[in-house]
Amino acid sequence: MREITAKEVERLLNEGKELNIIDVREADEVVQGMIPGAVHIPLKAIPARYLELDDDKEYIMVCRSGARSSQAVRFLEEEGIDAVNMKGGMMSWKGKTE
């Protein structure tokens, strides 16, 4: 499984790169703040909603610590979706939130 650090995600966003970030935390967790531009799809909804994703794009999966997002990455990879886990999750995020 490929991983990216929170610092690298922040750097790419600060450079103006268009990233496809999916936050797989629960609703009560995302109210604490999400990475700007991230889309919220709870982990339990990924199997029902992965067809909404464009298989020509890369997705960065985010959760609180990196465990749930790694589960999402494994599932998406099996379905042919290019997904990367943000190592350390939001616990490692030092950038802006919305």
| Proportion in helices | 25-40%
The largest sheet, given as strand count, sense and whether it forms a barrel, is:
5 strands, parallel
CA gyration radius, whole angstroms: 12 Å
- Can you give the mean pLDDT? 97
Overall structural class, as computed from helix and strand content, comes to alpha/beta
Number of helices: 4
User: What assembly state would you assign to the polypeptide chains in this entry?
Assistant: single chain
Beta-strand content: 15-25%
The total beta strand count reads: 5
Commentary on this structure:
This protein has 98 residues and is of the alpha/beta class. Helices cover 30% and strands 20% of the residues. It is built from 4 helices and 5 strands, in the order βαβαβαβαβ. Strands 1-5-4-2-3 form a 5-stranded parallel β-sheet. Strand 4, helix 4 and strand 5 form a beta-alpha-beta unit. It is globular, with a radius of gyration of 12 Å. It starts with a strand and ends in an 11-residue tail after the last strand. The mean pLDDT is 97.
Task: Give a quick precis of the structure.
The chain is an alpha/beta fold and 98 residues long.
SSE layout and pairings?
Layout: E1 3-5, H1 6-14, E2 20-23, H2 27-30, E3 39-40, H3 46-49, E4 58-62, H4 67-78, E5 82-87
Parallel strand pairs: 1-5, 2-3, 2-4, 4-5
Which features would summarize this protein structure in a list?
single chain, 98 residues, alpha/beta, 5-stranded parallel sheet, 4 helices
